[in-house]
């Protein structure tokens, strides 16, 4: 699909793609469950294995989606660096 678009069109669309990806990344990071509460920020913790949490279900899907969006954002920044 990218072969069909002229280079000027791709360069003009790229900032909008990056803005959309960055907003999606911000939202996915913010909706993830925070494991550290107020006590965790000061070094305290309620349970012994607080650092060893396995993600399951929607939490795992959201985590993987966040990684994919972050990689896409980095990959969308590379053409802008290489072209200019």
Could you please describe the fold and organization of this structure?
The chain has 84 residues and is mainly alpha-helical. It has a domain at 18-31 and 54-84. It contains three helices and no strands. The protein has helices at residues 7-31, 38-41, 58-83. The longest helix has 26 residues, at 58-83. The relative contact order is 0.16. The model has no long low-confidence stretch (mean pLDDT 79).
Question: Any descriptors?
Answer:
mainly alpha, single chain, 84 residues, 3 helices
| Main beta-sheet annotation | none
Would you tell me the structural class of the helices and strands?
mainly alpha
Radius of gyration, rounded?
18 Å
Kindly state the mean pLDDT as a whole number? Answer: 79
Order of helices and strands: HHH
Runs with pLDDT <50, length 5+? none
Determine the number of helices (DSSP H or I, runs of at least 4 residues): 3
Number of DSSP-assigned strands: 0
Which percent range fits the helix content?
A: 55-70%
Q: How would you describe the shape? A: elongated
Q: How far is the first residue's CA from the last residue's CA?
A: 23 Å
Strand content: under 5%
């Amino acid at each position: 699909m990218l072969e069909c678009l002229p280079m000027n069109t791709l360069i003009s669309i790229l900032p909008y793609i990056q803005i959309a990806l960055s907003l999606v990344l911000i939202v996915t990071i913010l909706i993830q469950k925070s494991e550290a509460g107020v006590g965790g920020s000061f070094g305290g913790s309620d349970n012994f294995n607080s650092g060893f949490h396995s993600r399951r279900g929607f939490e795992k899907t959201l985590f993987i989606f966040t990684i994919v969006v972050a990689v896409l954002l980095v990959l969308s920044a590379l053409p802008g660096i290489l072209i200019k």
